[in-house]
Amino acid sequence: GQQVMQIPQYQHVQEGEDFTTYCNSSTTLSNIQWYKQRPGGHPVFLIQLVKSGEVKKQKRLTFQFGEAKKNSSLHITATQTTDVGTYFCAAQGAQKLVFGQGTRLTINP
Amino acid sequence: DGGITQSPKYLFRKEGQNVTLSCEQNLNHDAMYWYRQDPGQGLRLIYYSQIVNDFQKGDIAEGYSVSREKKESFPLTVTSAQKNPTAFYLCASSTHGTSYEQYFGPGTRLTVT
């Protein structure tokens, strides 16, 4: 079945440093979604990307969808302690979403 | 106040007992999903339902059962056949299947000893 690989699995940064997580698929994706799960919480939808080469920004977060629609990235500029959590990408499969393994971000204040 | 609720937040059971986890939504969503999350792991799909009275197995359905008798409700039963049931269980809902965002409930943390 469809799989999405997400890297890195863990990332520890100093507050103020940038952070990037990558999501890769061997097949062309119709769209990709990104979610954030705070420690002890539940995943919360951040954004959906649909178009080839699409770039969307939410304050310090920049989301990109590759030209071939096989990869995506989430970049956080100047991390803050509120950014701590696990970031998941999710690709549309047959009647369901296929989630990546997630990237757990920890931040040293 | 619209949303998706799961109860209870924490659940403890003895091995060999069946247990049912509640999931209710008032978002008028057609689709509902159950995921399992183990510590430090991603989300694995257990069951999903696109419409009332219909549901499909996900990637790890063995040892679980569901029902979808009402649009608002999608309870999950963890049976004694599930070999390793201790986990964090998340319910989610969405409109029109997977082209739209999924809304997650707060989760139920099940511990079986």
Q: What do you see in this structure?
A:
- The complex is a heterodimer of chains A (109) and B (113).
- Chain A is mainly β and 109 residues long.
- Chain A has one domain: Immunoglobulins (Immunoglobulin-like, Sandwich).
- Helices cover 0% and strands 56% of the residues of chain A.
- Chain A is built from no helices and 11 strands.
- In chain A, β4 (32-37) and β5 form a beta hairpin.
- Helices cover 0% and strands 50% of the residues of chain B.
- With 113 residues, chain B is mainly β.
- In chain B, strands 2, 4, 5, 6, 9, 10 and 11 form a 7-stranded mixed beta sheet that branches. Chain B has a 4-stranded antiparallel beta sheet with strand order 1-3-8-7, with no helix packed on it.
- The model of chain B has no long low-confidence stretch (mean pLDDT 93).
- In chain B, a hairpin with a 2-residue loop joins β5 and β6.
- The A-B interface holds A 1, 31, 33, 35, 41-45, 48, 88, 90, 92-93, 95-97, 99-102, 104 and B 33, 40-43, 45, 48, 50, 56, 58-59, 90, 92, 97-107.
N-to-C series of helices and strands of chain A: EEEEEEEEEEE
CATH class of chain A: Mainly Beta
Can you tell me the CATH architecture of chain A? Sandwich
Number of strands of chain B: 11
Structural topology:
The complex is a heterodimer of chains A (109) and B (113).
Chain A: E1 4-7, E2 10-14, E3 19-25, E4 32-37, E5 43-49, E6 55-58, E7 61-65, E8 71-76, E9 85-92, E10 97-99, E11 103-108
Parallel strand pairs in A: 2-11
Antiparallel strand pairs in A: 1-3, 3-8, 4-5, 4-9, 6-7, 7-8, 9-10, 9-11
Chain B: E1 4-7, E2 10-13, E3 19-25, E4 31-37, E5 43-51, E6 54-57, E7 64-66, E8 76-78, E9 87-94, E10 103-104, E11 108-112
Parallel strand pairs in B: 2-11
Antiparallel strand pairs in B: 1-3, 3-8, 4-5, 4-9, 5-6, 7-8, 9-10, 9-11
Give me some keywords for this one:
heterodimer, A: 109 residues, mainly beta, Immunoglobulin-like, 5-stranded antiparallel beta sheet, B: mainly beta, 7-stranded mixed beta sheet
